[in-house]
Design brief:
six-stranded parallel beta sheet, Rossmann fold
Length: 281
């Protein structure tokens, strides 16, 4: 595995390569990331992985400061899981000048995470588009835990006319059911144990939904999770999986997904998850 910190060095390495796959990450790698990397390595001649904690997508300075950084461990995992080229740039390397671009995501950017994390998706699109320009992949891999982010990335790809296939990959969960996340490392063992209620409730809500209305399911999920004192639901929306707009009836969409964000613990850690209620192939 080659390790690069300068974009021009990475570009030179990739100049004569074909069938490039790319996995952008913010590090603190876990099995969820590794599932993306292994799939990328299996489907492409070259697997490139970036590790970069992007400051422009954090609207909370403390969140940026506390985000886990584990470079040495990340590099060891990349070496062991099929990565051919690791890209670990500095902030100055990625942003030699301020990125002032503003993306318009329409309605998919005005729901759920959009209004609650102003500027977040714009920052995501700024950095991912810069990485796409450097790596020039044919395929890029993203985890479905960040469900809304995948829709945003696809919108950005369309806006900028990139010829890149966005590959979405299933959520990887711990044995308990808790969705794998770099933020899980910020939880105490006790908090992590309590956080399992999030996925447990989502799984149970699938059966609950067979005989209940959308509104009833939403209320039941929120009440069930909030009954645990250290958990606080920020939002739970049941949406059309393609448009991300909230639905009122199960018949309103062929693809229905429940998206949730929950704060966990004394020093609140923000956790996200989602569940599919219906998807017609």
């Amino acid at each position: 595995m080659e390790v690069f910190r300068r974009k021009n060095d990475l570009k030179a390495f990739l100049a004569d390569k074909k069938n490039i796959g790319f996995v952008p990450t913010m590090g603190a790698l876990h099995e969820g990331h590794l599932s993306l990397i292994k799939r990328c390595a299996s489907e492409n001649e070259i697997c490139v992985v970036s590790v970069f904690v992007n400051p422009t997508q954090f609207n909370d300075k403390n969140d940026l400061k506390n985000y886990p950084r584990t470079e040495e461990a990340d590099l060891a995992l990349l070496r062991a899981n099929g990565c051919d080229a690791a890209f670990l740039p500095s902030v100055e390397e990625m942003y030699p000048e301020e990125d002032t671009r503003v993306f318009d995501f329409g309605e998919i950017g005005n729901v759920m995470e959009g209004p609650r994390r102003p500027g977040h998706f714009n920052g995501v699109s700024q950095v991912v588009s810069r990485l796409f320009d450097i790596v020039a992949p044919q395929k890029a891999y993203f985890g479905e835990k960040d469900f809304q982010q995948i829709a945003i990335i696809r919108s950005m790809v369309k806006q900028l006319n990139y010829d890149i296939e966005i590959v979405s990959c299933p959520i990887v969960r711990e044995q308990s059911g808790l969705a794998k996340s770099s933020r899980n490392t910020l939880l105490t063992d006790g908090e992590k144990e309590k956080a399992v209620l999030i996925s447990k409730t989502l799984f149970e809500s699938v059966n609950f939904a067979k005989s209940k209305s959308v509104a009833d399911v939403k209320q039941w999920v929120v009440d069930t999770i909030n009954a645990e004192p250290i958990l606080d639901v920020e939002y739970f929306e049941i949406v059309d999986g393609y448009t991300l707009q909230s639905i009122e009836n199960w018949s309103d969409a062929d693809y229905v997904v429940g998206c949730i964000t929950v704060y966990c613990g004394v020093r609140p850690v923000r956790l996200i998850d989602n569940i599919t209620y219906k998807k017609q192939e």
